[in-house]
Design brief:
The chain is of the alpha+beta class and about 625 residues long. Helix content is about 50%, strand content about 10%. The strands form 4 sheets. The chain has a 5-stranded antiparallel sheet. A hairpin with a 4-residue loop joins strand 14 (about 540-545) and strand 15 (about 550). Helix 11 packs across helix 12 and helix 23 crosses helix 25 (about 525-540). The protein is globular.
Length: about 625
Amino acid sequence: MLQALLSSSTSTVPGVGVRVPSVTPPADAWAALAPLLAGQARVRLSRDGGKSYPQRHERDLTGALPSFPAAVRIFGKDGTCGAIFLDFDSSVAGVDWVEADVRAVQSWLHRCGARWIEDFSPNGGRHVYVPLRERVTFSEARDLVEALGTRYRSLDKTPHQNLLHGCMRTPGSPHKRGGHQELAMSLNVAYDVARRPNTPDIWKAMTNDLAQEISAARALRLEQPFDTDASATLDQRQSTQVFHTPGRMPRPMQQLAVTGLYDVNRYATDSEARQAVLVAAAAAGMSVTDVQRRRLQGTWPGLASFYARYAPRHRSKALERDWAEALRHLQKSAGKNPEKINARKSPTSQPSTQPGPPQGILVSTPPDAEHRFIRTWRNALSLKESRYQESRNGLARRMVLRALGEAAHMTASRFVEFGVRSMAVATGLDHTTVAGHLRELRAEKDPLVTLVESGRGTHGDQYMLTIPEDVMPVAEDLSWRKGKIRALRPVFRELGLPAAFVYEALEQSSTPLPAADIIRATGLSRTAVSEALEVLAAWKLITKDKKRAFSVVSATSLKDLAEYFGVLEAVTAQKTKYRNDRIIWREWLTKRFHTVAELLSPEEDYPWEQFEGPPDDWTLAHMAFIGTR
């Protein structure tokens, strides 16, 4: 089949600087070249017309041409790439500038003895691909592309500056403005270049020719501040950074392990950076097996890229040697033996996205009776949630109700007094958004939750789960649903709310469900369910049997996938922010404990600007949410 596709293409000579439209069908170009150029067999789709390529829309790369703009991953799980992707953007300086830069790059590649593949976009942009026989590390590829960026103004360096999200459209991919990426040469020639990539000697010639520019690019990174939320922490000594945070790796170290980016003023080489990661992992209680698994599975591609200098069969042994050195460093610095340091509880479990049991909950009935009521309320929820339209607000309110239900199970009470910030962590929403949804939910006709008491001081609003009278007989007769009711699990912050509801329906079903049953169980549209199933299948969370029914793949860990997406970091950041908010609020209350009136006023000197600010239509109901810090 592939040979037939190749023989149908015309033969031209690449690298002459003239854009030669290809007669190759887009599907043929994609099938022949995308698998050979990709850093790993994964592709990201853009469902918003080419504006973005989110991680949740990533799936396995196949030879079938996608119907959406599609970009292959540049780097593999080992943090290396098998081709250099040069993206010349016409929006920077116009088509003429792009043409001039591409001709200059072609001349440079020719002088170095390199072979390349070229295509062009309908909007005038150009892509140049330089396949490599031996894969190069993320740092090496980034250095070369950044060096070229100093020569050529229209070259977009960002695809090679992001190890986890770097991706680019390849020949044949649909374009956001219509049309496709078209080869500027015959498919015969392009396929030959991809199958016979450039040798290490050519790569050496390219880097030697750019030696001055590479040095300048590295010097520029030395002058620029490191771009991370925790850059100040990165500049601290390892002894203060690692040893005083038992149980969890510092956030900068986790980012370094994932992205491969580090402060070059702090670590001079990749070797120093990888050793810092291992020291942090050991101090946090991880084992060498935990680290090896993250390296091999692609959870920490940044760390993996630091070991790409070794042959594949030697990488595990090199990491074990470095791990032993990390343990010795800890033993010397902390005055403890490695076994005790490594005996702490592993920090790899996902941080709890749910708050602990609230103080002062009123429970007037036995726990068993309360759990029976809560399960009956879950039946009422399934009967009434069809009222929420398939909109962003509707899906968010359904998730807020699930968070309330989970909180009720946790406290064995239908009365829930969890603040909006705790609810925000549980639902993946902003706390102001949660407050708005709660106002709407309690204002509904036949509500599922009722406001019992408004929050005051450090106590949040107290809500009671309510079974509407019109569905109470049916809810009591229905069988209770198996399993737990859950708020938004961290991985679905990335995969989306529709995927969360579809996964919930499959998880609670004792038998595989066809798509029609999933639509009925979730209340989502056929399109939303279809897209959610595609997303879940792409990440191996569900499987489809011969009868076209779907079921959950229990072997795929939601926790591991959330860590791969980096979602756990977002949860931790949100919890840290809200913890600081609560400290500010309590300090303000403490200062005014004996003087401030019970009902606050917008004129008070509370630091509103640090939070959401008081609403224009100030009411007691709105004021109640201030107590839910």
